[in-house]
Every structure is written in C-alpha cells, then in structure tokens.
Amino acid sequence: MRITVLGSINHDIVSKAKRLPAVGETVEGLGVEWIPGGKGANQAVQAALLGAQTWFVGCVGEDESGSVLEASLKSRGVHTDYLYKMKEAQSGICSIFVDQGGRNMLVHSAGANMRVTGDHIEAAAQTIAGSDFLVMQNEINMDAVEYGLGLARKKGVKSILNPAPALPLKNELFAMIDFITPNETECEVYTGISRDGRTLEDWARASAEWFLDRGVGGVCITLGEEGAYYYDGREEALVGAFRIDALDTTAAGDCFNAGFAVGLAGGGKVTDTLRLANACGAVCAMRMGAQPSIGTKEEIAGFLKEKGIEDE
Predict the structure, then answer these.
(1) Which CATH architecture best describes the domain 2-306?
(2) Distance between CA atoms of 96 and 9, rounded to whole angstroms?
(3) pLDDT category, 14, cuts 50, 70, 90?
(4) Is 232 a catalytic residue?
(5) pTM to 2 decimals?
(6) CB under 8 Å, gap of 24 or more: what pairs does 74-77 form?
(7) CA 235 to chain CA centroid, nearest Å
(8) Catalytic residue, candidates 63, 178, 248, 254
(9) What is the DSSP string of 101-137?
(10) For the chain, which residues make up each domain, given as ranges?
(11) What tens digit of pLDDT does each residue of 237-254 get?
C-alpha cells in the first residue's frame, strides 16, 4: 500500500489554558509546547503509522523549524525525498490555543507552504504514479493543488482532497477529484446548504449530491461527534463516532483523512473504512498535540478491539 501526501507542514505552538480567551482578553496559560504538525504532514504520519509506504511532498524554510519538521517525519516512517527547503521563506507556523475541554483556536502563518511549485510536484511524478492515492488539502497554494489533481488524473491515480480551509475551487476542478472530505462547516461554505430544519441524513445526502453533480467521485463528510457520512451515488453509509473524552482535537480530522485513505486503499467495505478513520481521529483526540498524538496501527487496532470491533 502506497500513499503520497501533497500538502502543508507546520511547527505548532500549542498554548494550553483553562478556557479560550475572548477578543482582547488575556487568560492565564497552563503551558506551551512546540510540536510538529500541519494538515499534510499529520496525514502523512498517520498513513505511515498505519503501515502504508508514505511519501510527503511539500516545503519548509531553511531554518531550525524546517530541520525539526523533517526529522519528525523521518522518525515516523515518512519518506521525505520531496520535502524542499526554501531559503526565501520561513517554515509554516501554527499558533494553537487549547482549553481543558479539548476545544481549540488556530492562527496559521503558511510561510514556505505557499511556495510549492509544479516542478516540485513533477519531481515526485513517478512516486505519485505508483501510489494508491494522492492526498491533498487546501493549506498550500491553490495552483499546487490544481497541479496535483491534474497530475493524479493524468497518471490514473485516485485523489482525495480534504478541502480545509474551505477556499474557492474552480468549477472544472471538482470533476478531477475522486473523493472529497469536507467537514460540516466546509460543506455549507461550498454548497450553501444549511442544516437548519433538516435531518442529518437529509442534509448530508443533499450536500453530497451537490458535489456529485459537479463531478466528484465520492463524498465523505466528517461530522465530529456525530461520526461520518459517505455517498458516491451508489453506496451510502453513516457511521457514528466513538464516545471518548477528548483532550485536544487539533489533528483529529487529519488522522481521519489518513485512515480514510488507507482504508480505501486496502479495499475494505465503506463502513469498515469509516470506522477505521473514526478510530484514528478518536485516538488522536484523546492526546495532546498534533503528530505526537497520532496512533500507531497497533494502538488503533487496540482501540477498535476495546470498542468491540476487530480485524479492521
């Protein structure tokens, strides 16, 4: 199983407090940590820890953070052949504030993440061509996302786009996306379809059909505590979330996306894939930080077994 991730990589500054501050307010902190993160890097780490051969394509600065971030990927089994160090930009930094209930607020300074070029991606073309999936997000420059989608389609490789943040997408790009994985907020930004007055199933089906009508192959909507919904025009599934005591949800969505990619690459049933993805997100949310909180294949299997689900 081979996964290539094209995307963002950041050094996270995580500040913990009893509660999140209001605008203009200062609250007492409970501690600060510097932790490797970034949506793309987190997804790559989770895929690698689940046992997939994983490559990361992206950019860091030629600075101390860049070296730390590269070392973090390598230590978790991610291939960094296509991680480029940029002299003219600093590494991406994400300032994260987390309260005792696991809720968070983020400020992202993209830095080198916005310097990914078509040449960077083209250099990885052979690796991408040999992958089961190319996974992307919207935390890098959009021309790079567009190039990645085009290259994946040209090479006959399935693509997964996690449209976070919910930046505008050209209409013609939707038909190049094999699977899209928005959360509820991102869904509403793109579709304009509100959940107000609708049942979850009705809203999710209508939202998924909006993407399908524009050419997307399959839609997986992440619903937080309500689980995840999938529809591709033929198969439909709604799988509930696992009940946990969340400590920090920072990278949970990234872990879900990696679990979704690995599950699909493994050829399992959609319901099994969603349970695996939900488990990856749940294990991550029960720990602090981004990459240090990501579970191994054995830990995910153990969690599923505790929940009465085996052989995922």
Answers:
(1) 3-Layer(aba) Sandwich (3.40)
(2) 15
(3) confident
(4) no
(5) 0.92
(6) 76/45, 76/48, 76/49, 76/291, 76/294, 77/48, 77/49
(7) 23
(8) 254
(9) TS-EEEEEE-GGGGG--HHHHHHTHHHHHT-SEEEEE
(10) 2-306
(11) 999 999 998 887 888 999
